[in-house]
Amino acid sequence: MDKQEFFSDRAQGMQRSVIRELLKITAKPGIISFAGGLPAPASFPVDFVRKALDSVLDKEPHTALQYGPTEGDPRLREDLAGIMKEDGIDTTPDHILITTASQQGLDLVGKIFFNPGNTCITGSPTYLGALQAFKSYQGVPVGVELDDHGMIPEKLEETLARLEEEGRKPRFIYVIPDFQNPAGVTIPLERRKRILEIAGKGGYLVIEDTPYRQLRYKGKSQPTFQSLEPDMVLSLYTISKILLPGFRLGWACGPGWIIDKMVMAKQAVDLCTSPFNQALTHAMLSMGALDKSLEQTIELYGNRRKLMLECMEKEFTGIDDIHWTKPEGGLFLWLTLPEGLNTEKMFKEAVDAKVAYVPGSAFYPDNDNFRSMRLNFSYADEGQIVEGMKRLGNLIRKKISATG
Ligand SMILES: Cc1ncc(COP(=O)(O)O)c(C=O)c1O
Q1: 237: CA distance to ligand 1 center in Å?
Q2: Lowest mean pLDDT among 12-16, 32-36, 198-202, 224-228
Q3: Does domain 63-288 have CATH number 3.90.1150.10?
Q4: Checking CA distances to 174, which of 127, 151, 204, 372 falls within 20 to 30 Å?
Q5: Atom 14 (ligand 1): residue with closest C-alpha?
């Protein structure tokens, strides 16, 4: 008997993340990797963690080491509501659910919104982990093209009309508005309003996933979807990229009726997010760790972003039909190679040349694009960025001459 038949249809459809598999290859010594999406270890607020640890163990060991409420530590929800208010979002702690980082937020979204075979809208390309979460509930992500300003409203309208006509009305529209993973692009205010207008007309929920929002190195912050349309938007946040990923701590913020259902869904998953990590996070926020840490992280990543863009200008000069996004924040940029080159096929040669990226095809929900790649600029240090870009430039030139 085929052992797969023991599994549910849902489980049979599950696949390992291409990126996590690929990271095993790129972790070999000597390879300069722009493939992962990891924060720089230098950005971790180790001293604050140590101070918070002492404080929590001294003052509140019995509650911090105990189970906690599914909704999350009330003090932390209060802190996060405050952070959101500063960002122009008029919310209260009871509209916030602490999650085991935003990946769990995505999983809960899949769990509460999909019946098998239901569609949803995502960017094309989009975050691979969202595709994985949605597909694991037998959701069917349908991609809408992006340009340098994120999801294209006209394409969204067309896709919604087509799906409605086919009787496949999407359950929600999933957007990553700020410094999108993988493309690095940000949706400007007018386009945010337009997307919300389209969503409102068709009666669609919007899921706004914005893990990089606070990591802005250039330009002006754009209002969140949530602040523009609080009744129809669920937002997902995380401390992973702005403080540290190892606590596995994030939060969802949105209408009470959605948060309430997410609480029920979460109870079956993990009962609650680690109360200990929540207590530590609350202690760290009370010490001002977020502002201090963000200040340093923004400087570090901002410089690396600038350096990578400069290296690209230098290494790719004279290559026709090559372009890349110039993100104002976040961790990633998106490089598109000349027609005829295939970043998936080139990958092995890149690893042989000791430089790594993620082939763009990994991020497409329902079509293929073999010309693009995602490059991360937060993890590799300055020397590696310079050398890695040189290796990548050489490889691209070699492939161009080989294709004639
Ligand atoms: C767009 C997006 N959403 C969610 C996540 C998940 O992050 P975490 O589970 O660490 O909060 C990531 C991580 O890279 C991401 O890029």
Answers
A1: 8
A2: 12-16
A3: no
A4: 372
A5: 37
